[in-house]
Design a protein that fits this description.
By secondary structure, the protein is an alpha+beta fold. It has 3 domains: 6-171, Jelly Rolls (Sandwich); 188-235, Homeodomain-like (Arc Repressor Mutant, subunit A, Orthogonal Bundle); 242-289, Arc Repressor Mutant, subunit A (Orthogonal Bundle). The protein is 44% helix and 20% strand. The chain is built from 11 helices and 10 strands. Helix 2 crosses helix 4, helix 3 runs antiparallel to helix 4 (154-171) and helix 6 crosses helix 7 (219-230).
């Protein structure tokens, strides 16, 4: 059996969509559609999740970590391959799937920030065909973002990556670590510090790490505490505030919609229009006219 090294695989099996040029840090998301075939891959510094999108089950043979699985893979089935583990697959019909590669160093960093034992002892387990509603929900949100014409906020992607990392640490490691959860949300003073920062930087690409660093918290615990305090995620709050700022500028100034979009943190006229319509039910042009 011929072994295909990773860069040869990517040349032979080009994704139909990829986040490679989106500026998403720590996580790479690619959508594939391949005819019947086989292939090997090995990623030294990334854990890999393959999420089936096939409308009809595909007969698959997979080998990793010295074990082999043969059976039908249907939409929603997930396989997990840890970094440095060779993976072979053979499929007998058209296969569609989402591949999520998450940096092993990122998993280690999240573990170091969130668990109460040494993260260096964490060992991610191989999985052949599992169903996991939480991973499925994250995968579909990543796929939706991947298919958007306009790239979304890095804050949103970072939030999804953190939730995915914590879930993998909790559910798919050899020794299930304890992750302490703090209840009660952010104190009012700290919450106002974060809100003031968001309002002052609406035109910038705010990252989850920026907000968590303000309070010297892990990104996972910050996101959880923020939502407990205000009832919405950091990304949802940021989007709401950007839309509110855009509304004010549309009504109170004669600036072009492109200029307003950029000053509110959107990357184009169409990006603002898309988000504005989802929230208000109308385009910025219509809102200004009314």
């Amino acid at each position: 059996m011929k072994t295909i090294i990773p860069h040869q695989i990517e040349c032979a099996r080009l994704p139909i969509s990829s986040s490679r040029d989106r500026g998403w840090e720590t996580i790479l998301v690619q959508q594939f559609q391949n005819p019947a075939g086989e292939g090997n891959f090995l990623h030294h510094d990334e854990h890999t999740l393959s999420f089936s999108l096939s409308p009809r089950p595909v007969r698959m043979q997979q080998t990793q970590a010295g074990k082999t699985f043969s059976g039908l893979f249907g939409k929603g089935h997930i396989s997990i391959t840890p970094a440095q583990v060779p993976f072979f697959a053979r499929w007998d019909s058209d296969d569609r799937y989402l591949q999520i590669r998450i940096a092993s160093q990122f998993i280690q960093n999240v573990a170091r920030e969130t668990i109460d034992s040494s993260p260096d002892r964490l060992e991610l387990l191989t999985e052949f065909r599992v169903r996991d509603p939480q991973i499925e929900a994250i995968a579909m949100m990543l796929l939706s973002e991947l298919q958007q014409e306009n790239p979304g906020s890095r804050l949103y992607i970072e939030s999804l990556a953190n939730v995915l990392a914590v879930h993998l640490i909790r559910q798919y490691t050899a020794v299930k670590p304890h992750i302490p959860l703090y209840e009660g949300g952010l104190p009012q003073r700290e919450l106002m510090q974060v809100l003031d920062y968001i309002h002052a930087h609406l035109d910038r690409d705010i990252k989850l790490s920026d907000l968590a660093a303000l309070l010297e918290m892990s990104q996972f615990h910050f996101s959880r505490s923020f939502k407990q305090a205000i009832g919405t995620t950091p990304y949802q709050y940021l989007l709401q505030q950007r839309i509110e700022r855009a509304k004010q500028l549309l009504k109170q100034s004669d600036r072009s919609i492109v200029d307003i979009a950029l000053s509110c943190g959107f990357n184009s006229h169409s990006h603002l229009s898309q988000q504005f319509r989802q929230v208000t039910g109308m385009t910025p042009k219509t809102y200004r006219a009314e």
